[in-house]
Amino acid sequence: MAENGKNSILRNCKKCNRLFSSVDGSALCSRCSEDADDGFNKVREYIYDNPNSSVKDVSGGTGVSTDVILQWIREGRIVLGDHANISFCERCDAPIDGGRFCGKCVRELAEGLKSGIGANEQKNRSGMHIKEHDRKK
Ligand SMILES: [Zn+2]
Ligand SMILES: [Zn+2]
To answer: What is the mean pLDDT of residues 54-65?
Structure first.
């Protein structure tokens, strides 16, 4: 088992589901983790060169899917600068290109205001500001 002196266990790759021998508790097989690292480096360089880009821009410029980029942002692997044009809806956590709410929530909030429902929610929020870089989620 431990012929090479490292603790390796057999497990299924989280991404491609192939059985592989995992060293260091990695959840991805070597092929997939290479892919991921490659994409991550591209994304990191792209953001470095274009700090104000949206997730869509980054995805288009690197070929990495928006889902993967958003996951890295959530995991904290990609740290957004103060001027980053990427954020998450404060209400439903959907990715948006700036602002505080996604289109769907903006509509729902507007309708809620019109009918009187959601007025309290709106009032509460006005005194509670979440800065992009202090966000826990
Ligand atoms: Zn894999
Ligand atoms: Zn939303």
So the answer is: 89
